[in-house]
Fold this protein.
Amino acid sequence: MSRPNPPRRETELYPPLKAWLETQGYQVRGEVKKCDLAAVRDGELIAIELKIRPSLALLAQAAERQDYADSVYVALPLTPVSRGFRLLLRRLGIGLIFIHFLRTKIKVEVAYQPGAEELPPRRRPKKKAALLREISGRDMDLSPGGLAGGKPRVSAYRQQSLRLAAWLAELGTASPAQLVKLGARGDAGRMLSRNIYGWFERVSRGCYCLHPSGRKALNDAPRLRALYHAQLREAVGKTI
């Protein structure tokens, strides 16, 4: 048996939705002012925006209808809807209706009512803390906003690794404890032992020097190299 043809036009969503609403006692009209579908029952006004697929434009249209309608829905054929789109609908208090085009019938399903699951803005303390750490860990702003995907970002971890590289380039060899005393991060020892960029070499237990690849990385970041050399000179002066 062949599969039912999915709707190609928004007008194909209107008849089954109109019939479904009329069975519930609504008076239904299409294209009223800017509404795709407007329905009234006992003075309650419902506005429904019809679309073949979800989009930000659909969200904007539905939000505009909230200025005058008592309840606002978006209606879509049964189609994958991203978690982010659903979350935005719920945050805005907009309802969601699916229209199932089955082989032998068309079924209307209310996924959720407008406002019924309206969510307050949710904060994620751990994510916020991680973002704040990333901001504070960057000594320079070297990654302009809007970089295309795949372009390298000069993260806080990379900048702090370059700090260790710059200091080892000046000191020759040093232990994590010495570097921390001069002002490096408290986890400098872990950064040196993990050596995720391949910039460091262990000379002996608890003692590191700079690998040639680390010198190249410093040459590729002259502004950070100059900053960290200046910081080291200041730190050494304070410890003398």
